[in-house]
Write a structure and sequence with these properties.
EC 2.1.1.-, transferase, 7 helices, methyltransferase, 214 residues, magnesium, 40% helix, alpha/beta, 7-stranded mixed beta sheet, tRNA processing, Rossmann fold, 20% strand
């Protein structure tokens, strides 16, 4: 039934631009993880409500989500970080082709090792974390200070395609630590006194943490 709802909703939405369709096909063919259509549509809808002016993104991949964000928000500027060289180079090309190069700043590097001075000093209204899932708590702790009070931190892939529902002992050994870390982060942030946090069962799970004002 869920897939039928998704098909129905898709039939009501406008067809994406040729560039976006090309990026989706490229990601699928090259096994590059990008947000699925229901997840990105919901995420962009939330951003339209929030209307952030400055967004910091951890995990550019090929620039798909950054391009989707700036195309929907006419006044937003995005700083996005990607550590994988090939993905970074593809993102640079796609961003240039999109015509949004003046509003998307992409930085190559490991976000966990990067000095704060590298990040442009904005009062970011939103932080979007979509990188190594087992490191979400470290990303959050390092970059949440860049988010202004009242700002929102979004995290994607909180369900890891259902892996968070599987007991640790039944997970493949190579994934156990990552999934355990992700679940520990979820419990930690859901109870954090400085954030109002919700977990949406949309796409692969989207977490929304609103930074409380003083």
């Amino acid at each position: 039934m869920v897939n039928e709802y998704a098909t129905y909703i898709s039939s009501l939405t406008e067809k994406e631009s040729p560039l976006i369709q090309e990026m989706e096909q490229f990601a699928e063919e090259n096994r590059i993880p990008i947000m699925d259509r229901s997840g990105i549509d919901t995420f962009v809808g939330l951003l339209r409500i929030q209307q952030p002016k400055f967004i910091l993104e951890i995990g550019s991949a090929i620039g798909y989500s950054a391009i989707r964000m700036v195309s929907a928000l006419k006044e937003v500027s995005i700083v996005t970080i990607e550590r994988d060289k090939d993905r970074y180079e593809n993102a640079v090309r796609y961003i240039a082709r999109s015509g949004y190069g003046d509003r998307i700043t992409i930085i190559e590097g490991d976000a966990l090792l990067m000095d704060d001075e590298v990040i442009p000093e904005y009062h970011y209204d939103a932080l979007f974390i979509d990188a190594a899932k087992g490191q979400y708590k470290r990303f959050f702790e390092k970059y949440s200070k860049h988010v202004a009070p009242g700002g929102v931190i979004y995290c994607d892939n909180m369900f890891m395609h259902g892996a968070v529902l599987i007991p640790d002992a039944e997970l493949p050994k190579r994934n156990r630590t990552m999934i355990r870390n992700l679940k520990e982060f979820t419990t930690w942030i859901m109870g954090h006194p400085e954030y109002e946090t919700s977990l949406l069962p949309v796409g692969d799970g989207i977490l929304i943490a609103v930074k409380k004002r003083d």
